[in-house]
Design a protein that fits this description.
Strand content: 15-25%
CATH architecture of the largest domain: 3-Layer(aba) Sandwich
Order of helices and strands: HEHEHEHEHEHEHEHEEHHEH
CATH class of the largest domain: Alpha Beta
CATH superfamily of the largest domain: Bordetella uptake gene, domain 1
Oligomer: single chain
Largest sheet: 10 strands, mixed
Number of strands: 10
Number of helices: 11
Number of domains: 2
C-alpha cells in the first residue's frame, strides 16, 4: 500500500515539475542549426519556418548556418549539442541518409544521435533538358539515351546530392548509360545546363521552373509519384517509368536524450508553424509538399530513407 502511495506521489511531482517547466520553456532564444550555407534552398525554407516557429514558441528562433562537407559539419555539430531544447536542427535527405551511405564514416549516427520532432516537407526534382536535346517527353529522352550510350551528360549539384541520386535511380530503372557531371552547387548546375555543358539534370522544381517558363530549359517530368498541385500539367517521370519516385525532404530534429516534454512542446509548435498560410504558400511556390508528422512517424521515415539511399549508393557504385 505504501508503494502505491509512493507511486502517486512520484507521478504528482512529475506532473508538477512539467507544469513548472512548461511555464519557463522556452525562456530564451533558440538556435536552429541549418547544415547548408545562406541562400540555399534549405536555408530559405528554414528562415521562413523560423519566423513562424518564433511566433508559436514565444521566443526568437535564430538560424545558424553551418554548411560544408555535404552538410556533415552542421549535422555533427547538432548531434553533439546540449539536450536542453535550445538547439534545434533541420535535417534532410543529404545529411541524414545520403552522406552516411556515401562517406561511410561521419561524426554522427542519423538514427541514434537525434530525436525526431516532425517531418516538415518533401521536395521533388524535375528532369530538365537543354533545348538542343530533341526530346519532347521522358520516353523520347530514354530512346535517345539508348541510341547514344555514354554520350548524354547528366549534371548534378554535386556527388551524392539529391539531384545526383535522382538521376542514378533513373539510370538504374531505365538501364541507360549517361555521364555524370558534378557541379559545386545547384546554382552552378542550372547554369551548366542553360549553357549546354550538361544535356540534362534532375534539379529541384523551384530552380528549373523559371527557366522552363521562358523556354531556356525544357522540363519533361517531376520525380514525385503523383503530380504536384502547383504545376498540375507537368507529368511525373513515373508516368513513363512506372515505380519511379525520388524526393528530398526536410524535418525538425533535436539531439538525442532531449526530454520527451520538450519534444512534445516543439512538436505542437512546429505543427502550428507549418499550418500557417504564409508557410504553405512558400512551399507551394517552391514546388514542395507540406507533410507534418508525429515524432514516431518521422523516426520510421528516417529509417526507411537511410536504407533506401544506402542501397541506391551501393547499387550505383558511388564513391566520395
Amino acid at each position: 500500500m505504501q508503494r502505491y502511495f509512493d507511486s502517486i506521489l512520484i507521478a504528482f511531482l512529475v506532473l508538477q515539475s512539467n507544469q513548472v517547466f512548461s511555464e519557463i520553456y522556452p525562456s530564451k532564444a533558440l538556435r536552429l542549426i541549418v547544415p547548408w550555407s545562406a541562400g540555399s534552398g534549405t536555408d530559405m525554407m528554414s528562415r521562413t519556418l523560423a519566423i513562424k516557429l518564433s511566433d508559436a514558441l514565444g521566443q526568437q528562433v535564430v538560424v545558424d548556418n553551418r554548411g560544408g562537407a555535404g552538410a556533415i559539419i552542421g549535422t555533427e555539430l547538432a548531434a553533439k549539442s546540449p539536450t536542453d531544447g535550445y538547439t534545434l536542427y533541420i535535417g534532410g535527405s543529404p545529411s541524414m541518409a545520403i552522406s552516411p551511405a556515401l562517406y561511410g564514416k561521419v561524426g554522427y549516427d542519423s538514427i541514434k544521435d537525434f530525436s525526431p520532432v516532425s517531418l516538415i516537407s518533401q521536395f521533388y526534382n524535375a528532369l530538365s533538358i537543354h533545348p538542343s536535346v530533341s526530346a519532347k517527353n521522358v520516353k523520347d529522352l530514354i530512346s535517345i539515351a539508348k541510341a547514344r550510350p555514354g554520350e548524354l551528360m547528366m549534371g548534378s549539384a554535386g556527388n551524392g546530392s539529391t539531384s545526383h541520386l535522382a538521376g542514378e535511380l533513373f539510370k538504374k530503372m531505365t538501364q541507360i548509360n549517361m555521364v555524370h557531371i558534378p557541379y559545386k552547387s545547384g546554382g552552378q548546375l542550372v547554369i551548366g545546363v542553360l549553357l549546354g555543358e550538361a544535356h540534362l539534370s534532375f534539379s529541384p522544381v523551384s530552380t528549373g521552373l523559371p527557366h522552363a517558363r521562358n523556354g531556356k530549359l525544357i522540363m519533361l517530368g517531376v520525380s514525385s509519384s503523383k503530380r504536384i498541385p502547383s504545376i498540375p500539367d507537368m507529368p511525373t517521370i513515373a508516368e513513363s517509368v512506372p515505380g519511379y519516385d525520388y524526393s528530398g525532404w526536410q524535418g525538425l530534429l533535436v539531439p538525442s536524450s532531449t526530454s520527451q516534454y520538450i519534444i512534445t512542446r516543439l512538436h505542437l509548435a512546429i505543427l502550428k508553424a507549418i499550418a500557417t498560410q504564409e508557410f504553405k504558400e512558400y512551399l507551394a511556390r517552391e514546388g514542395s509538399e507540406l507533410v507534418g508528422s508525429t515524432p514516431t512517424q518521422f523516426a520510421i521515415f528516417i529509417q526507411v530513407e537511410v536504407k533506401k539511399n544506402a542501397d541506391l549508393v551501393k547499387a550505383a557504385g558511388l564513391k566520395p
